[in-house]
Amino acid sequence: MKRADDWLEDAAYNRAYDELDKVMAELQVRPGDERQALLPLLAHPNIQVRLDAAIATLTLSAAATEAMQGIASLGYCSQAFSAKRMLRAIEEGTWKPT
After folding, report:
1. Helices (DSSP H) in the chain: which residue ranges?
2. What tens digit of pLDDT does each residue of 14-46 get?
């Protein structure tokens, strides 16, 4: 997804996001909420992977919030913008992670 985002390849980004959304939904409904398997990805070198893992695991671990705050502090890349927007929405109560 990061490459598609960096190169403004909207169709590729949307396909990747849809696929990721399906995987996250499947992990969530499995017994024991298998999204926990994504926690090691909070330290991944790819910023998009870290952001996606943080979003998916926000309700499972404080480390996800810390990872998202770290991404938000990175500056003006699209992932930092997304992290800032999500953190603000959580703070304002307009978005609640599930």
Report:
1. 2-6, 10-29, 47-57, 62-72, 78-92
2. 888 888 889 888 888 988 889 999 999 999 999
